[in-house]
Amino acid sequence: MGGLIGSNTGNVAASYTTTDVDGTTQVGGLAGLNTGTIATSYATGPVNADTPRVGNQVGGLVGNNGSGGIIQTSYELGTVNGVSDVGGLIGNN
Fold first, then answer.
1. Contacts of 72 (CB under 8 A, 6+ apart)
2. 30-66: per-residue pLDDT in tens?
3. In the chain, at which end, N or C, are there fewer CB atoms within 10 A of the end residue's CB?
């Protein structure tokens, strides 16, 4: 679950979101799962996945940056809360 994209397999550029994101796994401010490219993008809303579950993969920008995922010149400014695999920018890489 992402504030803009659930799962990115293509190219995202010059994009942003300010929304609040709440979910359970692969939760990101911009994208829940990224196996494509994200460039010059950002997220500013809070990201939450407080369900007690192993492997939440919660990130301020991307929850799970999977195989082949590329993130360039991007940032996040929101708060991030989760149980495991939690990162300010990326939950799991």
1. 37, 38, 39, 40
2. 999 999 999 999 999 999 997 776 668 999 999 999 9
3. C
pLDDT value of position 53: 64
* Residue 33 φ then ψ, to 5°: -130, 135
Q: CA 14 → CA 24, 82, 86, distances in Å?
A: 27, 27, 24
Amino acid at 41: S
Q: Report the C-alpha gap between 43 and 22 in whole angstroms.
A: 14
Domain count, the chain: 1
pTM over 0.85: yes
Q: Residue 25's domain spans which residues?
A: 5-92
